[in-house]
């Protein structure tokens, strides 16, 4: 059974449903329903991949010490999978304080420099489709459940919006600095 995510917007979130650090990510998608944010991001993935391909910037770094476009894409995939996992555990009533992760260490270990654009595109599309199905599986009560991740309270529905806002944030960086 699929639940309707069209009636849930980021503006419905209480400030206590996510750490203020994530505020900019929520703000980016504030005018969208969770369903629309997840669906819109699917077309954004392919659109930006086409632009990255046309510009041949997949392994480019905008400056020394910054992540390449491939590393940013792999970071998005890794983070989304972690946020999915957190959402599932919280929705199922797990009260464990879910550990954070070192994004720089993840990128360093990701082997993103050996991946091609089509591989990254397909990986990101598969993970995003998985997120869409996951969040459709949750009912209203589960979407509102809160748990603790990285030492801060967060709700299941906030994690859905963070996934989308996080992608939009990084895609904006790619468009501004790389393409």
TrEMBL record:
It holds the Pfam family DinB_2. InterPro entries: DinB-like, DinB/YfiT-like. SUPFAM superfamilies: DinB/YfiT-like putative metalloenzymes. Residues 55-174 form the DinB-like domain. It comes from the Bacteria. This is DinB-like domain-containing protein.
